[in-house]
Amino acid sequence: MSAYPKKTLYYEDELKDDFASTKIERKPLPKDFKFHHENVFYRFFSACLYYIVAVPVIWIVLRLFVGARIVGKKKWKRARLSGKPVFVYGNHTSAFDALYVPLLLALPKRTRIISSIEAVSNPLIRGLEVFLAALPLPDTAEHRPAFVKAVEYHASHGDAFLIFPEAHIWPYSTRIRPFGEQAYVYPASLGAPVVSVCTTFERRKVLSFLPPRPVIHVSEVQYPDMDLPISERSKLLRDESYRYMVEVASSLENVEYYRYLPASMKKDGGE
Fold first, then answer.
1. What is the pLDDT along the chain (271 residues), one digit of tens a residue?
2. How distant, in Å, are the alpha carbons of 32, 177, 205 from that of 188?
3. Residues 193, 187: contact at Cβ < 8 Å?
């Protein structure tokens, strides 16, 4: 059995550093970028591609290669009973978590993944990503109204939303990085329920030479207090979400496969 951790990664800025294996050049969204389509034919073929092609393929990959499992799915079901769109917030530990969280949690509902612009910067696959689920977060005022309208549109159709408030991928990270309350404005403004998920890692009992498998833990449902100003609502949702993630990541048996250390330790000769 191989010993963990296998790799030590050094970070300069825990808020901005990204350790994703695929480095994509950030490109601005086209001026005429459409965040959602109301055309019935577009929606029909998008649903067909999502449910008939993408879901089965991703499901097979998850089961055969990733082996992810979920703890607390009944809590998610209670959130769905509200009849409102559910906003899911999780730690970002893999490029795959944008795939297995929606499949293991939200089906049969579609999950819109609020992503960074980098995720849709490749023009060759941008259309496909948006066609399936991606909803890129704009960084210009020009696109902001259309983005908000798209969130409201998908929310009105009962779709779920997946957001990674840490923003950047730190593979197999066992710690929760700091994040603000900006990402919690959406449920705070819509009065929608929030579910937090925290991915931890466990050593495999079979094929233990493989990397640890992800375990997704689901929180109790949170609801924004609509009697409070939206800034306070957002902060309360963020604080409870952050508290849950930190508690789960630190209190459970969470296998360290990659170790993350400040770059200053590397300069000082630390490991």
1. 446 777 899 999 888 888 876 666 677 777 887 888 878 888 888 888 888 888 888 888 877 777 888 888 888 777 777 778 889 999 999 877 877 777 666 667 788 888 877 766 666 666 667 767 788 888 788 888 988 998 998 888 888 899 999 988 999 999 999 999 999 999 999 999 999 999 999 988 887 788 898 999 999 999 999 999 999 999 999 999 999 999 999 987 788 899 999 988 886 554 5
2. 29, 22, 42
3. yes
| SS3 letters across 16-63 | CCCCCCCCCCCCCCCCCCCCCCCCHHHHHHHHHHHHHHHHHHHHHHHH
| pTM (two decimals) | 0.87
Residue 35 has which token pair? Answer: 């965040």
CB atoms within 10 A of CB 17: 16
Q: How many Å apart are CA 79 and CA 58, to the nearest integer? A: 24
